[in-house]
Specification:
This protein has 268 residues and is of the alpha+beta class. The chain has one domain: Lipoprotein localisation LolA/LolB/LppX (outer membrane lipoprotein receptor (LolB), chain A, Clam). It is built from 4 helices and 14 strands. The strands form 2 sheets. The chain has a 12-stranded mixed β-sheet, with helices on one face. A hairpin with a 4-residue loop joins strand 7 and strand 8. The protein is globular, with a radius of gyration of 20 Å.
């Protein structure tokens, strides 16, 4: 069943991608004497590699990863300071999620189960809960937009990672075959509005993402965010209550500061 799904999705993507790569479109110059430049495209090989990865993640009943994250924070004086975070996440497409984050700036946990999002700050021992209608996709949107929660590698957790990753892409191509900690990977590079992003996907089966990088080129100082996925857990036995939250001893319940509709929240 998984192989059939992979073949079907790759064939569809190839059919769509060919239009991008075989049509010689150009952007007209703004004035006389200026050369025309090729219109941005997303190559068929980039689409195919990303679609193959996405199809595999979609077919899995449960997924989990451990990741080492390094990111920049730009101060008011323009100086970039680098921080590190270790993240572990487990989720099911049926709509359950558990995330644990331990880093320089944050030590917290995020849960989604039975229509309820819960956030625990392990340093202050406070937690907040909020009801969310819909499945995991809706919950991730709410976490990002309304609840201002930063969810590491959230794009991989949606029901269609391919669509989520590609929705803002302007151009993309395969850079080559490069290694991530000794693993040969298909290295893809994309341009989106306001940022550039790259992804490294295992050349072998299963085609798992091994590294992601985001360059916020339009922000002051062009900070970067990089995650290396050190471990994947596919179809592991998570148990029925893996995403159930129990408040720690003497934890304090507080309220989320929820953004009004239409306002953007935290960074993924």
């Amino acid at each position: 069943m998984r192989e059939q799904t992979l073949r079907l999705l790759i064939v569809v993507v190839l059919a769509l991608g060919c239009a991008d790569t075989t049509t010689s479109q150009t952007i007209e110059p703004d004035g006389p004497g200026l050369p025309s430049v090729p219109a941005p495209v997303i190559t068929a090989e980039a689409r195919t590699a990303l679609a193959r990865m996405s199809a595999y993640l979609v077919e899995a009943k449960s997924l989990g990863f451990s990741a080492d994250v390094v990111y920049d924070v730009v101060g008011f004086d323009g100086q970039k300071i680098q921080y590190e975070t270790q993240a572990q996440a487990d989720w099911t497409h049926a709509g359950q999620l558990r995330i644990n984050v331990d880093g320089d700036e944050r030590q917290n946990q995020i849960y989604f189960n039975e229509g309820q999002v819960t956030f625990l700050d392990k340093v202050t021992n406070v937690y907040a809960t909020a009801a969310v209608e819909g499945g995991l996709d809706a919950a991730l949107d709410e976490m990002f937009v309304r609840l201002e929660l930063r969810v590491p590698l959230a794009d991989l957790m949606y029901s269609d990672p391919y669509a989520t990753l590609m929705k803002s892409a302007i151009s993309g191509r395969q850079v080559g075959i490069n290694q991530v900690r000794g693993v040969d990977c298909i290295h893809l590079a994309f341009v989106a509005k306001g940022l550039d992003w790259q992804i490294w996907i295992d050349t072998a089966d299963p085609p798992l993402p091994r590294k992601l990088l985001i360059d916020y080129r339009d922000e002051i100082g062009s900070p970067t965010w990089t995650a290396v996925l050190t471990e994947w857990r596919i179809d592991s036995n998570l148990g029925d209550g893996f995403a159930s939250f129990s408040p720690p001893s003497e934890a304090t319940l507080v309220e989320f500061m929820i953004n009004p509709p239409g306002e953007m929240g935290g960074d993924r």
